[in-house]
Amino acid sequence: MQEKAVALVVCVKKRYADHQPSCGGRGSQRLYEQLKMLAQPAGIAVVPFPCLGACEYGPNIRISPGGPFFNRVTETQLPDLIAEAISFRDGLNDTVANP
Ligand code: FES
């Protein structure tokens, strides 16, 4: 049986006007790069995304497909996000193995 894959989707949209908030304007590109490096050993993909629709609350990251959404993410939260993604993936695979 094929295992389900999950990804951490990171909004990297950057707007340059001061009155237009964006995840990229709050450092999400750096979070994306760090997360990519940290998540690789766990087999969790990290995917850049142009906008997750919650720009005022960024940096925003979500677990895909259909997982939780995280706002105002900071560097210190990244290990917890990876743990959440692993747990989410395990839950999906349990559901597939034990319907
Ligand atoms: S800019 Fe990140 S959610 Fe829109």
Top keywords for this entry?
elongated; 2 helices; 4-stranded mixed sheet; Glutaredoxin; 99 residues; 4 strands; 32% helix; alpha+beta; binds FE2/S2 (inorganic) cluster
| CATH C-level name | Alpha Beta
> How many domains make up the coordinates?
1
> Which ligands does the model contain, each kind named once?
FE2/S2 (inorganic) cluster
Q: Could you give a short account of the major beta sheet?
A: 4 strands, mixed
Class inferred from helices and paired strands: alpha+beta
Write the layout of secondary structure elements.
Elements: E1 7-11, H1 28-39, E2 45-49, E3 61-64, E4 69-70, H2 78-97
Give a quick precis of the structure.
By secondary structure, the protein is an alpha+beta fold.
Describe this structure in words.
By secondary structure, the protein is α+β, with helices and mostly antiparallel strands. The chain has a single domain, classed as Glutaredoxin. It has helices at residues 28-39, 78-97, and strands at 7-11, 45-49, 61-64, 69-70. A 4-stranded mixed sheet has the order 2-1-3-4, covered by helices on one side. Strand 3 (61-64) and strand 4 form a beta hairpin. The longest helix has 20 residues, at 78-97. It starts with 6 loop residues before the first strand and ends with a helix. Bound molecules: FE2/S2 (inorganic) cluster. FE2/S2 (inorganic) cluster binds next to loops.
